[in-house]
Amino acid sequence: MRLTITYENNIPINAFRWTPNKKLEPLHYHSSLEIGLCISGSGVFYFGEKQYRVAIGDIFIVNNNELHIAKSDECNPSTYIFINFDPRLLLEEEESLLLPFAYNSDHFDNRITSASPLAEPLGALIEEIWNELDARQEGYISMAKSALLELCVLLLRHYSTGMSKFEWKRMTDTFRRMRPALTMVEDRFREPLELTDIAEALLLSPSRASHLFQQELGRSFKDYLLHLRINEAKRMLISTSLSAADVCFGSGFQSIPSFYRLFKSIVGLSPLDYRNKFSVHAIIENTKQ
Known about the structure:
This protein is an alpha+beta fold. The chain folds into 3 domains: 2-160, Regulatory protein AraC (Jelly Rolls), CATH 2.60.120.280; 165-218; 224-288, Orthogonal Bundle (Arc Repressor Mutant, subunit A), CATH 1.10.10. It has helices at residues 88-93, 119-135, 140-160, 165-188, 195-202, 206-217, 221-239, 244-250, 256-267, 271-278, 280-288, and strands at 2-3, 13-18, 29-30, 33-40, 43-47, 50-54, 59-62, 68-72, 79-85, 111-112. The strands form 3 sheets. A 5-stranded antiparallel beta sheet has the order 2-9-4-7-10, with helices on one face. Strands 6-5-8 form a 3-stranded antiparallel beta sheet, with no helix packed on it. A two-stranded parallel sheet has the order 1-3. The protein is globular, with a radius of gyration of 20 Å. It starts with a strand and ends with a helix. It comes from Paenibacillus hemerocallicola. InterPro entries: AraC-bd, Homeodomain-like_sf, HTH-like, HTH_AraC, RmlC-like_jellyroll. GO terms for molecular function: DNA-binding transcription factor activity; sequence-specific DNA binding.
């Protein structure tokens, strides 16, 4: 389920407190980026097929593609402060600040635990943004934006520390070089899309664009496009009651037999078996065991 985010302030940043339901609700995603801080209680945070136990002080990073939802424990409901914001806010400042949110959902750890040295300064900045947007004193927009940028810089430094300077420079150069093409693919993967379209966006020949995808992303254009379509199909299977045929065409596949064949070969389950295993109701049953 995709949620539409509206911003209540004269800047595309929202801050709100939220206590998740004790019963698991449908997973969702949205166009904004999001950072959440658990300030009380306990529960579980779901990101697609990943599950994290939640404790006070834990921080969660959410991009604009990954399905997610939190659930409170029955006897100790959790409460969060969430900050969500338009990614263009970072793009206007320094595009590398988007790198912590440009993750591969299958391998990314969405949780920064309360035991991490980073949790305390991040938590303080989240609370500062909440307080500024709640009080709305003179200059609050500048203060909230400043705190958000500082928060994102800390995240950027955190995720870059595990790489050498060479590896990090290569990653940032690749991000800048490939961003126009990746943006086009992410916007249009549900449509018929060809390598020639990407080559035009990169101002390259199709053969050079193909080589660039393979060199910089470690996979072909077709594989990258298939990855996005499979992930979209997984989201639709989990969060909607649409038929497999509707999921097939809604996620960009042009043929039902090829959709079934490719989904099974990549995911290891048929589309309907995947829905049965990872739907909201299936997750509820699994957590009861």
